[in-house]
Amino acid sequence: MDVARLVMMGQALTSAREEDGRQAFPGRPWMREKGLASGTASNVGLKGIVAGGITGGIEICITYPTEYVKTQLQLDGKSGASKQYKGIFDCVKKTVNNHGFSGLYRGLSVLIYGSIPKSAVRFGSFESVKKQLADADGKLNAQTRLLSGLSAGVCEAIFAVTPMETIKVKFINDQRSSNPKFRGFFHGVSHIVKENGLRGIYQGLTPTIIKQGSNQAIRFFVMESLKEWYKGGDNNKHVPKLVVGAFGAVAGAASVYGNTPIDVIKTRMQGLEAAKYKSSWDCAVQVWKNEGPTAFYKGTIPRLSRVCLDVGITFMIYDSFMEFFNKVWP
């Protein structure tokens, strides 16, 4: 009899706790499932950081040569002695002839150091914001998808992308000169900071925030929308990794056509000749006057190929790690 009474008391206590959870967290069902659920909810952002960091390191090793070619073409002048390349294949050919195949990976160390925290911040921020904005069913509407992606892009621009991209562009630009000054990553960074201060690694912050914010807003909006469409309202339906990769490629293409002009301005503002521009706006005006409107889409084709491959691979790897973490990391 005492045992039966204890069981009944335990059931009553459990029911009362579940009711308290429903009242305390009416719009956040993940916060009321069990005693450690609040820790699990906070783990979503941490899982995103870890999975994103691993994804960033793998992805950049695969796609860096296209990034190198894109940057070289954007830094190339319109005509005369400042113009070195006739196009994508000429850039690849001259780079391999002058520096060997490894020349296509010059500056990779800069992106390795930067891509891991960049991807970690991006996905960690997205997962955290998404969790806060999701409805009772854990879904996002069009506005919250855009806002979640925008937040992820702004965070990565401030904390990772701007210093990483500035250093990368200066390294690649330095290799274009007849007498390169940088002997390695740490020597190059110390030289930049010594000459220009911390401002030297935060040049182009505004266009980078605009670029990354719009980039991730577009990418996550397209990706989340396509996945929602594929699932047809069934949250438990599995999306195959190849389908995720295809959706990622579409999301990447949409972002390229949406903000390549911003990317060109950002690259110019982060180059070694950035001092000749008074501001990002002045850079845009000078490019328009001196090189014409088509200059704003220089490097679009190599960027398109890189980004489609990049985003497709990134989402495939990230989804795989998140699935794994959700199984082994409660």
TrEMBL record:
Q: Which GO terms describe its biological process?
A: mitochondrial citrate transmembrane transport
Supply the alphabetized keyword list: Membrane, Mitochondrion, Repeat, Transmembrane, Transmembrane helix, Transport
How this chain sits in the membrane, per its record, is: Multi-pass membrane protein
Q: What is this protein called?
A: Citrate transport protein
Listed Pfam families: Mito_carr
| A GO MF label | citrate secondary active transmembrane transporter activity
Its chief place of residence is mitochondrion
The similarity comment for this entry is: Belongs to the mitochondrial carrier (TC 2.A.29) family.
**What are the subcellular locations of this protein?**
Mitochondrion membrane
Entry's Gene Ontology cellular component terms = mitochondrial membrane
- Native organism is Ceratosolen solmsi marchali
Look up the signal peptide feature and give its range.
none
The stretches annotated as Solcar repeats are 43-132, 143-229, 239-324
Q: Which Gene3D superfamilies match?
A: Mitochondrial carrier domain
